[in-house]
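User: C-alpha cells for VOC family protein, please.
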Amino acid sequence: MTNEITIPLLPCASIDDIVAFYEVLGFHTTYKQRKPNPAVGLQREDLHLQFFEIAGFDPAQSYGSCIVLTSDTGQLYRAFAAGMRAAYGKVLVSGTPRMTRPRARKNADGLSGFSIIDPGGNWIRVFQNAPASPAPAPAGRLGKAMANAVVQSDSRGDARQAARILDSALTHPEADDDPVALVEVLVYRAEVAMVLNDPATAAEMLARVDRVALSADEATRAAAAHEAATDLAAALS
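Assistant: Done. Predicted C-alpha cells:
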C-alpha cells in the first residue's frame, strides 16, 4: 500500500497553550476534543502534529519528541521566526517554549537542523532531507568545538556541557583561528547562556562579537551569525 501518513501524538499540560503557541508558527486546528480526554490536532501545510493533555504534567520532565524532514530548514526556520517576532516581538531562545537556529549537526552527517521546544516540553526536531553526498566534516579548532557543542545542547538538551566545550575553546585562542568561526562560536555561546538563564554571559559574548574584525568577504560569511546575534540582543532587552 502507499500514501500512508504517520502523525506523532505528544503529551502536554494544556492543549490551549499548545494551540496558542503553534498558531504563532502558522498552524491551524484540524481536530479538538475536551472529552473523554482533551486532545487537539494541528496542521501547517504537510506538517501534522497531535497532542493530548495530562493533568499535572510537567513539561520539564517530558521525553516527547519527533523528527520533521524538510527540503529547506532555513526557509521553515525563517517562517517560524517571523511568526514569533510578530507575536512576541522576538524569537524565543530561552525557557519553554523556545527555538534553536539551523546549524550543521555532527550527529546527523552534517545535515542542517533546528529544534522547537514547545509548551509541552516536546522537542520537534527539524532536519534537512539528506543531500546527494554527506556534508564535509567541520574544519579547524573552533569549528570542531562548535560541532561538539551543538550535539550537546541542540540535540541532547545539555546546555551546560555545551557551555563547557565552548568556554574551553574561547579560553585558548590561536593565531590562525578563523574569525568567522570565532563569531559563530561567540554567538552560539550567547544563545547557550540564554538557555541557562545567564543574561550577563550572553551580553558579554555579544559584546565580543562586535569587537571581531572581519573583511568584507568574512562579513558576508558571518551574516547568519550576526542575524542570530540581533535576535539574541532583542531577547535580552
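User: Anything notable?

Assistant: The first strand starts at residue 9 and ends at 12.
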